[in-house]
Amino acid sequence: MAGCSFLSVLAIHICLLLGLSFAEDPFVNYEFVVSYITASPLGVPQQVIAINGKFPGPTLNVTTNNNVVVNVRNKLDEGLLIHWSGIQQRRSSWQDGLPGTNCPIPPKWNWTYQFQVKDQIGSFFYFPSLNFQRASGGFGSIIVNNRAIIPIPFDTPYGDITIVIGDWYTQNHTALRKTLNAGKDLGMPDGVLINGKGPYRYNDTLVPDNIDYETITVHPGKTYRLRVSNVGISTSLNFRIQNHNLLLAETEGSYTVQQNYTSLDIHVGQTYSFLVTMDQNASSDYYIVASARFVNETTWRRVTGVGILHYTNSKGKASGPLPDPPQDQFDKTYSMNQARSIRWNVTASGARPNPQGSFRYGSINVTEVYVLRNKPPVTIDGKRRTTLSGISFVNPSTPIRLADQYKVKGAYKLDFPTRPLTGPPRMETSIINGTYRGFMEVILQNNDTKVQTYHMSGYAFFVVGMDYGEWTENSRGTYNKWDGIARTTAQVYPGAWTAILISLDNVGVWNLRTENLDSWYLGQETYVRVINPEPNNKTEFPIPDNALFCGALSRLQKPQHISFATSVRGSSRQNFLVGLVLMLSALFSIFG
After folding, report:
1. Smallest Cα–Cα separation from 136: which of 102, 106, 167, 111?
2. Cβ within 8 Å of residue 294, ≥6 positions away
3. Is 433 in the same domain as 543?
4. Are residues 436 and 542 in the same domain?
5. How far apart are CA 562 and CA 114, in angstroms?
């Protein structure tokens, strides 16, 4: 007993020292056990990917500048990477969780991510980035709160609610992957999930009995912040709540000019924050709806997610027809005009005290221009592939950043074209050579027949223009050079273009991809390599101690003999103290 008493006193002292060591930028720790479970979100038992036994996974709730440590245990039967979509990973693309920067976590292995949410606020999500796994789950929300000293541009909401929506198939990711590998389309999804659950039975013909649906309980008269992410495969969804206005306040780390919408199109990979006031009478519950956009609505009626908004004093169940989606079947500009209306709140503070608009992006000279064009799938060497500017990306066996670190030759080509290729398409590991501290203009030209959304890791970019037709040099005359929204994911409508501006101040290797999971899987992506050429510079963190090795560097990988593989950045004193705490945990398990 005396030994336990001594250990307790020692543990208290070490925890106090840790508190002092990390007082400036606190550490937040999570444990992710990633495994398969059986669930029936659409009434059909199927294999889904759960985190800690839950589908969807837990919400990461952190604050600006927190150091986030996530120990991931891979209990799947294949390699795994977790991507923290929208987290900029300042100075550390090592933690981005994508095959261009990381080797997969092997089955039965653990690996610890550690990253700082440096100078960020807002709403994001995470997901597994390999092998089409997102189609089976493994996703969850990320909240980055403002520090207490930075005011938010609205009254503090009564509650904060995360909602993940997305199209869903009753086949798991391995079956869907086989379909794509066989050169076939996935076809119409089987439904839309809201927080991992199927639709409320609003229609006895379209919705089977005994499906578990999402219910969000609220207090009348209160205002809540709803953070809504489209984590699906390829379907744009219209989000709406019956009889309630959605006051848009933030998207992917930027506060917006506050505007009311009766519904908003949320494209694959996008996240929005709404303020919703519970100002209706409580005679009944209200529908929460996420329905497919830009499709034949008669054929796709069952591809609709329906949840319930329940007032605590509600007197009855929701009934009757769902609230109408936008009536724009013959007006292709409606959704684009809605997207154009989303503007940056230039007077609000973001993660820092100074106003967001103090970064005057419209007055910065562009140093490099890339026009990226996607087309419908093509056949290359007998395989069905998607392309960007005529190149279908092939993931390297040795991740790009790792190849640079160890000077592996031939892992990739630094020759991605500034304009689309005119010859036949080809499959290559070709990436963009970005200029450190340059200012890049990227035009995303969508010559496919469905909406594409594009995401770039490592940055928030400015969405400065979009229109139908082919982009030309004259299109720059339409750019918004004052309050274009800064975000991480932008939609490009079919037969249209979207222009973005990127300040290349974050050293690393960063993925630029379509978020449409089927197109991404078939090659519609590239990477942007941003290197500081100055010798002995401190603009990138060193390779983490727990880096995994694969491809040409497989010989460097040691077997994993311990229960976790972790690497804590910080001073040697901090690392020593963390090690002591881990040792004490083991001693307590023996003597406690």
Report:
1. 167
2. 236, 335, 450, 451, 494
3. no
4. no
5. 18
- CA dist 286 and 73 (Å) reads 39
**Phi and psi torsions of 555, nearest 5°:** -65, -20
Phi-psi region of 389 (alpha: psi -120 to 50; beta: other; left: phi over 0): left
Which domain CATH number covers 552?
A: 2.60.40.420
Nearest-angstrom CA–CA distance, 223 and 587: 48
- Gap between the Cα atoms of 552 and 562, Å rounded: 25
For residue 445, give its domain range: 361-530
HSE toward the beta carbon, residue 276, CA cutoff 13 A: 33
pLDDT along the chain (592 residues), means of 10: 47 45 79 98 97 98 98 98 98 96 97 97 98 98 96 97 98 98 97 98 94 98 98 98 98 98 98 98 96 92 96 96 91 94 96 92 96 97 98 97 96 97 96 97 97 98 98 97 97 98 97 98 98 91 96 94 48 45 41 44
Is 489 part of any domain?
yes
**Cβ 357 vs Cβ 350: under 8 Å:** no
Q: Give a yes or no: residue 160 inside a domain.
A: no
Q: Are residues 459 and 539 in the same domain?
A: no
Q: Is the peptide bond before 45 cis (omega within 30 degrees of 0)?
A: no
Tokens describing residue 546? 């727990």
Asked, for residue 232, whether it belongs to a domain, the answer is no
Residue 195 has which token pair?
């927080």
Asked if 468 and 557 sit in the same domain, the reply is no
